[in-house]
Amino acid sequence: MVDASCPPLALRERPTSLNLTAYCLDHWARVAPHREALRVLYGVGPAAPRPRAFTYGEVDRTVRAYAAVFARQGLAPGDRIFIRLANDAPYVFAFFGAMAGGFVPVPASDQLSDREVADLIADCAPSLVVSDFKVASVTPLPRIGSTDLASQAHSVDPPPYAAMRPDDPAFLIYTSGTTGRPKGVLHAHRSIWGRRPMFAGWHDLTSDDRLLHAGAFNWTYTLGVGLSDAWTAGATALLFAGDRNPEVWPDLIAQENATIFCAVPSLYRQILKYGKNLRARLASLRHGLTAGEALTQELRSTWDNTVGVPLFEALGMSEVSTFISCSPSVPVRPGSPGRAQAGRRVCVLPEDTQGTDPLPANRIGLLAVHASDPGLFLGYWKRPEEEAAVFRGAWFIGGDRVSMDEAGYITHHGRANDVMNAFGYRVAPQEVEAALLQHPAVQDCAVAEHQVREDVSVIAAWIVATTPHPSADALEAFLTTRLAAYKHPRAYHFVSTLPRTRTGKLQRRALQDPAYSTQNEAGN
Fold first, then answer.
1. What is the C-alpha separation between 314 and 517, in angstroms, rounded?
2. How far apart are alpha carbons 462 and 482 in whole angstroms?
3. Cα–chain-centroid distance for residue 190?
4. Tell me, what DSSP letter sits at residue 512?
5. Whole-angstrom distance, CA of residue 487 vs CA of residue 313
6. C-alpha span between 190 and 164 (Å, rounded)
7. Would you tell me how many other CB atoms lie within 10 Å of the CB of residue 8?
8. How far apart are CA 82 and CA 475, in angstroms?
9. Which of 284, 198, 268 is nearest to 233 (CA)?
10. How far, in whole angstroms, is CA 228 from its chain's centroid?
11. Is the pLDDT of residue 254 over 90?
12. What is the pTM of this model?
């Protein structure tokens, strides 16, 4: 077990009063109100729309004004606000403004289908919807658009930040659940306190940095590292609201003199493939950050040799953000995402028992985080059974199979459950299967990750269908109104049967054997 105490962090000595948004913004709004806090980019070159830039003073005032507008809607502290907006500044202000007023934002992707949106709204029961899109809901809900919200905020006198306790709910995010339905992960205001070990343990952010994050505005990787951490450090947060083709990122880094870049490994791979003269164009970078997918040693080495700046990897999960990492002060070890950040209590527990005694070094088991970590979630929204299943005594177990060496470095050995990784988004195969089974020609199906080469995996579907079977294009079109695009399979295999046990349980791992699809191929 690693129980690395770091007195300067005083991780367990959390404040008695803590508002997440105030923690990020209040200090810098007072000591450096004219420092640039947020810069939203829309393109590169003279023909691109001008960026929208906001100082710490302006962001501080705006989020408090948004909080006032939300309060005028009759909301009470703790009420949920469902947010579904395009990638732009209003998304940021609505999310942090909700927490500034003591409300609970529920950020959602603009890629979700109407059915997915309706399901989330039915589950979280918000008191207000902030969206410029038509929002499907069984129960009519009050809704406000970004233009109206900004207009009202401009005319109000911003109130002080709401006085919150560390354990009060701060935000609710949805992630794929093992039952096939997305589950809500409820975080407290203390989660911002729980992010403190990341500064020395991973991203090394300072007030001199200009951090460009490649993620969508609703993603917790973006909201956390790209905004919360950047603002806590007094840095400038750079977000991109334009077309996300791989070629644009080196130009944005060069144009904005970004010092830190955040992305998933697959995007770094695409930059290397399509980018030219990268060492010169990325000369402003101190380092890159990567999370959401495993970083291969081949990709790390190619990036180092081509660009000349290091990549620092982190391992985390929706329930606790990142807690395993390397950094400028934590040496990179090939094949490992790093070790527990200072102040974290982390261990490896047995897979096949309910034991709470940590395994010896180099034994494969389940990665566990101690329940005392302030970054750990409050619980799953209305899912007591699933919540109970991830705790073993005083330990939270997220499902990652790992081993830990004598120095505390982690080696990842896959997932103990079936949750897939789609470019950093976690997707439950059951959710995709449920959507496919609604197609009249699909008699049975299975979904799993399919490795197309050593460093690339995609979501694939194995379909037992009527004859003639539907085309992959037809199934893709069918899913468009049912699932967000990132959840769609990238490969379809039409087979005569699926691998199941005698009790009918699907054997997903058998699907990943290339011989299976060939031997069971179904003809038209």
1. 34
2. 18
3. 18
4. T
5. 24
6. 10
7. 9
8. 30
9. 198
10. 13
11. yes
12. 0.83
Bigger pLDDT: 418 or 185?
Answer: 185
Q: What string of DSSP letters covers 109-123?
A: -TT--HHHHHHHHHH
User: Do 147 and 136 touch, CB atoms closer than 8 A?
Assistant: no
**273 HSE (CA, 13 A, CB side):** 9
User: Which H/E stretch holds residue 307?
Assistant: helix 297-307
Structure tokens at 474: 């037809």
What's 381's DSSP letter?
T
d(CA 7, CA 434) in angstroms, rounded, equals 49
Q: Which residue(s) pair with 427 in the sheet?
A: 420
CA distances (Å), origin 199, targets 214, 244, 261, 342: 19, 28, 15, 10
Name the residue type at position 375.
G
Task: Name the residue with tokens 């603009």.
Answer: 110
> Residue 138 above 70 pLDDT?
no
Return the SS3 of 254: helix
Place of tokens 């995010």: 173
Measured between alpha carbons, how far is 235 from 56 in angstroms, rounded to an integer? Answer: 10
Residue 439, number of CB atoms within 10 A of its CB: 18
List the end-to-end C-alpha distance of the chain, in Å, as a whole number.
55
User: What amino acid is encoded at 311 in this protein?
Assistant: L
- φ, ψ for residue 129 (rounded to 5)? -115, 130
Question: Locate tokens 């929204």: which residue?
Answer: 381
Q: What would the pLDDT profile of 144-171 be if each residue is shown by its tens digit?
A: 999 999 999 999 999 999 999 999 999 9
Q: Which amino acid is at 208?
A: D
Q: In this predicted model, what pLDDT tens digit does every residue of 410-451 receive, in sequence order? A: 998 777 766 777 766 778 787 888 789 889 899 888 898 887
Spatial CA neighbour of 418 closest among 301, 511, 307? 511
Which 8-state DSSP code applies to residue 359?
Answer: P
514 falls in which pLDDT band (50, 70, 90)?
A: confident
Contacts of 161 (CB under 8 A, 6+ apart): 19, 21, 22, 26, 64, 67, 100
Q: For residue 450, which amino acid is it?
A: H
